[in-house]
Design brief:
The protein is mainly alpha-helical. The chain has one domain. It has 3 helices and no strands. It has helices spanning about 1-40, 45-50, 50-89. The longest helix has about 40 residues, at about 50-89. The mean pLDDT is about 90.
Length: about 90
């Protein structure tokens, strides 16, 4: 049971790390939106050069990866906690 609690704690720490990374990515995304608002005259050039598309693609990829990691950790925690409940019954 102690191993399960340690694993749950490890997974929770992983979730915290992934959430911090997601918040950082959202901050980057917000800055991109602000830059687009402030420099709307440059948007055609940025789109033509593919800069905006690359930044959006990177944000999407990183968010997808981090959310997948959070989902995996949630599943592991759920399995471990249901296993613990079975032992206690």
């Amino acid at each position: 049971m102690l191993n399960n609690l340690n694993e749950i704690n490890d997974q929770a720490a992983g979730i915290s790390t992934n959430l911090e990374m997601i918040f950082g990515q959202m901050e980057f995304f917000g800055e991109l939106i602000n830059d687009m608002d402030l420099h709307s005259d440059m948007l055609p050039v940025l789109f033509e050069n593919g800069l905006i598309q690359r930044k959006l693609g990177a944000i999407y990829y990183l968010l997808s990866m981090q959310l997948s990691e959070v989902q995996k950790a949630e599943q592991i925690i759920s399995e471990l906690s249901s296993h613990k409940n079975k032992i206690l019954k």
